[in-house]
Each structure stands twice: as C-alpha cells, then as structure tokens.
Design a protein that fits this description.
Layout: E1 4-6, E2 9-11, E3 15-17, H1 26-34, E4 39-41, E5 58-60, E6 65-67, H2 76-89, E7 94-98, H3 103-113, E8 120-124, H4 131-134, H5 142-155, E9 160-164, H6 171-180, E10 185-188, E11 192-195, E12 197-198, E13 203-204, E14 210-214, H7 219-230, E15 237-240, H8 246-255, E16 259-262, H9 265-269, H10 273-288
Parallel strand pairs: 3-4, 3-16, 4-7, 7-8, 8-9, 9-10, 10-15, 15-16
Antiparallel strand pairs: 1-2, 5-6, 6-14, 11-14, 12-13
Helix pairs in contact: 1-2, 3-5, 5-6, 6-7, 7-8, 8-10
Length: about 300
Amino acid sequence: MLETSFLAKKFSNPTVLASGILGVTGAGMNRVIDQGCGGITIKSVSLEPRTGHPNPTMIGQKHFFINAVGLSNPGVIEAIEEIKKFRTLSNAPIIASVFAGTPEEFGEVTKQICEAPINFLEVNISCPNVSTEFGDPFAYSIPAVQIITKKVKENANVPVIIKLTPQAWNVAEIAKAAESAGADAICAGNTISGMIIDVRSRKPILHNKQGGVSGPALFPVALKAVYDIYKTVNIPIIGTGGITTGEDALAMIMAGATLLGVGSAVYYEGEEVFKKITDEMEVIMNEEGIQSLEEIRGAAHT
C-alpha cells in the first residue's frame, strides 16, 4: 500500500529521514531504518570538517523547533566511511547531502561523495543560519541555482535533488530553474529563518541569534511550497517540513510530494515516529478506500 517509486528506486514507504537529524553515523542511520523509515538522508557535509556554531544551538517548544547548529560535520571523507558502514548494515535507499560556498566547491564535494555507495545526491543550497559565512542562500537566486545545478550534474553519477527554501517568494520559479538546469528532483524544503528571545536576559537564546525554524509550525508553509512547485515542474518532489502525523503525510502527497522528509518529528515523538506516521497513513487510506499513494498524488490540484 505504501511502497513508493522515486526516480526508479523502490522505497518500502515514502518516509525519508531528513538531513540533519541522526544521519551522521552508519549505525545511527541503520537504527532509523529499523524503526520503520523508508530511506535515509545524511547530514549535509562539506569538503572540509566544520565545527559549526557555539552553544546554545537549538531549542524546542510546543509548536516549533529552532536550530543554528551551523552545518557542523566531519567533512566528506569521513562521511563516505560512514555511508560505507551503513551499506554493510542495510540496503535501504540513501541520499547523500552536500553544501558548499561556491559552484566550484559544489562540484568538488559532489565528485568526492559520489565515490560512496549512494543512490541520490541532495544539494543543500538553502540553509538559513550560516548567512554570515556564506551570504544569502543560493536558493533565492535563479542564476545561482542554475549554475550550481549544472556544476553538480557535471560531477554526479547519481540523480541530483536540489533542496530549496519555502521562504523564497518565487519558490516555484526557482524549482523550474533547477529543473531546466538538469535537476532530477526537488526537495521542498528547508527550515525558515526565525529567532527566540529570552525575556529575562533580554537576549536571543541562540548564540547565532537567528536559526532555522522547523516542526509543526512549518508544515503549512512547506505544504504550500510543495503545492506551488508541483504545478510548475515535471520532476518528483520530496515534501519536507513539519510532518508529524499520517494526516500530514497524506496531505503532503495530495499537494504533490512523492517522498516525505521527516526530521523534527523525532524530537517530538522519538525514533518510533516513522512507524507511527505510516501506520496512521494506512488507517486513513483504508477508511477512505485508497489503494495506493499514486492515486492520490497531486489530488488537491483537481
């Protein structure tokens, strides 16, 4: 009932661990698969290791989670070793995720990560909490998106997924630009920029002051981004942002998503959230007489 085909690759169900959550070690990624997740996206990696931002880097409240981890990662060489470890433990689909500061760096980190046994490559051009180092995210600029997409495609040996931000007012146009430059799929999207202030200290809580907002509060924003993009492109979409229930998941598919990125829900529900979401999806599908996800994909557009 939930089996999904994405760019000719079979997923046991459409849930995918979103980048930045648990996707660091091979053992950790395998544990998520054992908990019922359909596929893995690793934490975004760069050419060289990054320490990220000083603490405090994250805080969660009832309706949202905000982080400014700062893209900390061990670098592409170590990431390749962890991917190899994961592959010895599981045959589940794996999406590598990369980021860089220039098109040339995107090309080089792509070339290196594609030496690992990955199925897809996600290109993170939309992180909102490293603007002091990298400037505004590339995902706001049509020319930048096209240049980076082409550079990555030149160096990739697997399908390329461009990760956009729902914060871009013209996200559908940005997605179309990525498609025209050769992108095989779109991930919509990333966190959006936000801030939390402690009223007693009268200061922002995060050391970086601003951070990326995720969790349930992001869901309507991400849902509309997927809806808008689906009307514009002919390539599949990974709907990501605030999915915590089976109803959320089905709504995202009805908006046009093929896969479902799940991340902050782990904070709220634990690693069991993947099975919880898929179980709830099946209950609703049985109640509504839905035989497969394919028959409802994009249904909200009719």
